[in-house]
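Technical annex, item 7. During the second reporting period the consortium partners agreed on a shared format for inverse folding records so that results from different sites could be compared directly. Each record opens with the tokenized structure and is followed by the designed sequence. A conforming record, contributed by the partner at site C, is shown below for reference.
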């Protein structure tokens, strides 16, 4: 679920509801790892057909000190803030943008850093993977492939259908491919917005979620036998 949260925030830039502002110039420079995060994962990722790389690391600071560190280390950057999450965006070269997502899980724990260099303008024409279900009237805007783990992530906008109804449709679309809902959120008195689905052959897991703003997310990866 944490990986789905990371992807959701990365792709929506913390959503249009986030506060976005420009950081004032500072005396610090910018390196590939400006806050000296402890990197524990590096893997390729393909976003709308563009090959990129994602790094995960831990910054051993609380969220309040992190804001000060960002001021000291980033120059001419923009930051989107929502809750305890911060997304730093800054241009690099050749039309690409460096993004650092900082996720504070809970007080006292290190802050998770997600680092990606992506095109400033991501292509809007791409093929939606056959493995990912999608609502009939939806408009896809993001597809991410993780070759290392054979995982897929997709995001799309849909009409004003209530989340519970959208979820019911999604489960019905996935069922012919032998996906079975595990959480049984359809029993949640019309308040359901997400579901976990399992397929036994070939074994795989799928996470589906819908927001009140009309955005749907689906993530799937194989399971070890």
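Designed sequence (site C submission):
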């Amino acid at each position: 679920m944490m990986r789905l949260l990371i992807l959701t925030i990365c792709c929506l830039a913390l959503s249009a509801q986030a506060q976005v502002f420009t950081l004032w110039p500072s005396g610090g420079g910018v390196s590939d790892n400006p806050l000296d995060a402890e990197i524990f994962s590096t893997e390729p990722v393909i976003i709308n057909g563009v090959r990129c790389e994602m790094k995960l690391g831990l910054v051993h600071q609380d969220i309040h000190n992190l804001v000060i560190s960002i001021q000291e280390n980033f120059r001419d950057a923009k930051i989107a803030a929502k809750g305890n999450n911060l997304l730093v965006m800054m241009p690099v070269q050749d039309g690409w943008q460096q993004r650092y997502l900082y996720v504070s899980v809970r007080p006292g724990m290190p802050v998770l850093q997600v680092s990606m260099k992506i095109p400033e303008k991501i292509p809007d024409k791409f093929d939606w993977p056959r493995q990912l279900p999608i609502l009939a009237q939806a408009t896809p805007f993001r597809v991410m492939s993780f070759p290392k783990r054979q995982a897929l992530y997709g995001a799309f906008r849909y009409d004003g259908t209530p989340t519970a109804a959208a979820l019911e449709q999604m489960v019905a679309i996935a069922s012919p491919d032998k996906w079975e809902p595990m959480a049984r959120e359809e029993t949640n008195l019309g308040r359901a917005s997400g579901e976990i689905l399992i397929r036994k052959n070939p074994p795989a897991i799928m996470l589906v979620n819908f927001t009140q703003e009309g955005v749907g997310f689906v993530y799937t990866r194989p399971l070890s036998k």
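The two ends are 21 Å apart (CA to CA). The longest helix spans residues 163-174. All partners now use this format for quarterly exchanges.
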